[in-house]
Design brief:
This protein is an alpha/beta fold and 121 residues long. The chain is built from five helices and five strands. It has helices at residues 10-22, 33-42, 60-69, 87-96, 108-117, and strands at residues 2-6, 26-30, 48-51, 77-82, 100-103. Strand 4 (77-82), helix 4 and strand 5 form a beta-alpha-beta unit. Helix 2 runs parallel beside helix 3. The longest helix is centred in the N-terminal third of the chain and has 13 residues, at 10-22. It is globular.
Amino acid sequence: MRALVIDDSRAMRTILTRTMENLGFEVEAVVDGQQAVEAVQRGPLPDVCLIDWNMPVMNGLEFIVEVRKNREWRDITLMMVTTEAEQANIVRALAAGAHEYVIKPFTPEVIEDKLAMLGLL
Ligand SMILES: [Mg+2]
């Protein structure tokens, strides 16, 4: 399984990369939504994306909208991982096509549980 970690915080990229590697994923990490779109276009396709909301250039919500425009990318699982805890924003992300929503700070067990529920473990 392949994971794409998308976060402008280097510390968060490190934490998420380690978490996913410990769960057996091959991980690529990028710093914004634009780089993430490029990574998906370049392939191989990730099975799951872990997506920060607030990033420069292209934010996480914009990235989700981009991914959902392309039918060839419909099997990619999209998991928002963000400090945006407002109910309205959670609803917006899910409406745009996110499958899951994790609020920072999180424990690796939360990520593991969500991935298991999504059938990715
Ligand atoms: Mg951020």
